[in-house]
Amino acid sequence: MNPDAKPLLDLVAAAAPGYLASLADRLVDDPAAHVLLDDLGGPLPEEGHGALGSVEELLRIGTGAATHSAGPRFFHLVVGGVTPAALAGDWVTSLLDQNAVLQTSSPLAATAETVVLGWLRDLFGLPAGWGGVLTPSATFANLTGLACARHWWAARHGRDVAADGLAGLPAMPVLGGGYVHPSARKALQILGCGRDTVRVHGTGRADVGALEHTLAELDEPAVLIATAGEVNAGDFDPIDELADLAARYGCWLHVDGAFGLFAALSPRTAHLLRGVERANSVAADAHKWLNVPYESGFAFVREPAVLSETFGSWHAPYLAGGEVDYSRLGPESSRRARALPIWATLRAYGRAGHREMVERHLDLAAHLGRLVEAAPDLELLAPVRLCVVCFRYAPPNVADLDALNQAIGAALLADGRVYAGTTVYEGRTALRPAIVNWRTSEADVELLVSVVRELGVRFVQDAG
Fold it and tell me: What's this model's pTM, rounded to 2 decimal places?
């Protein structure tokens, strides 16, 4: 192996500006470029093709065949872009290749993580004394928070579940509303509590009265899950009221704020999170609305000691980590220094810059909602509360609007000019574009409306 990395890094550095500049004009996904994916395959090379040629090949394939979700018109799922500072910070992360598990493995990574966790708590208005840890995603953040809830609940039954497991314990009661996300259910599945054990109260927002009735009948502590930012329409559970219930009945309140936690950045939407500071655990994603690269989530827990009780006790002397040991605060051991891109973007743009980004996205979502309401063949299915707009193509005299919108959703992904998939909202097939990319402009959301209507007209004419 040639130790000289400079020609390889020069290749990537030379390709990056042109690729980033092209995002505004590229198809979000180009089906014609998928043929390039065949070039990834073949047998494992025996001798290797050389570093320079291989990186050239990866750039050729990747810049052509990637889904260009870093661009301004990727509205599918809830996928943020990457700010310039965060992108550069991620390059630094790979350059330094730190193992962020222990202070002894990397004082830099441990210090950076401690700093950014403090900055994030401040950004969201969470108490300074809370414990926290960076995770690969909101799913891992939910896993972290709910693992702490499980530890807390088992301790109420006299069991150290970290040491002795769940055997012999009753099922842990987990209650929520209709917005509980599959990632929270997946976390419960991994934790051995059961994916389908969540007792749902309400078809949308959590029904506080029904929840209280159930809690009054229980003779043991329970875990409540509140959703901050539902994926189909951006709605919120009444967190403050759920915090009241948690206090009254001695429950653990976990808030899944994957992207909705960022509502705290704007005075216009901060009220949606009223009560979050009274939760026991909070989970969110940075690679959504903070616009840092994958993989980047975070979890906060009111009682820091619960994190170490849940994830610590390795009994491995060689893993003595010094003052800071994040392997004892979360589910990962070896982990990259994912704090560095977060540090870079928060340092670069500050609270004001990230507030401006969130508020610009709120304005764009409101603009999209107005365009939908003004169009005679579009129907807004839910109020625009945050950054997600739920609507459908609904021309008159079409019998099966669900099938029509399903076809439009598939056509949008194949067309590639804009990227937005379908969902089912209150029994109706709908589009639910999410606006969380720092590059997105009014022209981009206007193009989305134009393309949806264009494809819709085409389908109706073909059917007629």
Answer: 0.96
Residue 432 burial (10 A CB sphere; 0-12, 13-18, 19+): buried
Evaluate whether 393 touches 378 at the Cβ level (below 8 Å).
Answer: yes
CA distance 304 to 306: 5
Cα separations in angstroms, 145 against 239, 252, 328, 457: 16, 10, 14, 47
Other beta carbons within 10 angstroms of residue 370's beta carbon come to 12
The CA-based dihedral angle spanning residues 304, 308, 311, 314, taken in that order and rounded to the nearest 10 degrees: 170
pLDDT above 90 for 315: no
What is the residue extent of each domain of the chain? 89-345
The pLDDT assigned to 70 comes to 96
Question: What sign does the CA torsion over 28, 139, 279, 214 have?
Answer: positive
Domain 89-345 of CATH type 3.40.640.10: yes
Using the 8-state DSSP alphabet, how is residue 135 labeled?
A: E
Range 336-360 average pLDDT: 98
Cα gap 345→354, rounded to integer Å:
9
Rounded-to-integer distance, Cα 143 and Cα 330, Å: 9
Which residues partner with 135 through β-bridges? 297
Of 119, 127, 135, 182, the C-alpha closest to 311 is 135
